[in-house]
């Protein structure tokens, strides 16, 4: 169960499906009794020890993790009821091992030292010469994930995961989306830097974005409709839905500028006429 940023965890599933990426495990919203459904039934002693009663007499816990797992960052019920999202488990690690990759456009989080992509406008050229981005579809997967994160305002994509068994012939799993939907009034353009620097996108993604910008297939409307069946509906307030429409236009504007600068055949990779294959390397002309 996940209770941090309920709205972003629930909305990432329909948004992933509407964008036709389909790389987020299924999630549903639930009202959970922290006492009866977690504390009293868990066999995890480490988790059980993190439960406590707050000064306001609410049941709280903080779990086990590398970051922020402390009483200062606890999750508390009212008094023990809490809204949460339940995600379907991926295959057991023993059956399908996953590999964690560092995002090439990871943020530095340093007051003085910036990440390389923040100071080098040609950083993508370096990435494209580095495995696994020098062949196959991995770079295009990163572009899809970039668009996905920008629409939700998720700045926290440090790493991503793939299924280890398939090597570079695989896709990115969109996990850990909990920092999305923070400020509806702010569009964090730095999230879009990978797309702006690389000027690459799948044709299927480009066509889907253009479709969702049309009034009759408006992204915000489809998102709202897709969440009406959840038990905790409404999940997002209208200003967040409107922000997605606004950010979608910004993505299309960025791609339009790329096409004007580099040419359509370089920017848009045609993935609708058969598989690209693991050994595919984009070879379209590039304008300079």
From TrEMBL:
Keyword Transferase included in the entry's annotation: yes
InterPro entries in alphabetical order: FAM20 (IPR024869), FAM20_C (IPR009581)
Keywords: Disulfide bond, Glycoprotein, Golgi apparatus, Kinase, Serine/threonine-protein kinase, Transferase
Subcellular location: Golgi apparatus
DNA repair is among the record's keywords: no
Pfam entry (one): Fam20C
Molecular function, one GO term: protein serine/threonine kinase activity
Segments forming domain FAM20 C-terminal: 51-267
Origin: domain of life: Eukaryota
Similarity comment text for this entry: Belongs to the FAM20 family.
Name recorded for this polypeptide: Extracellular serine/threonine protein kinase fam20c
Lineage, uppermost ranks: Eukaryota, Metazoa, Chordata, Craniata, Vertebrata
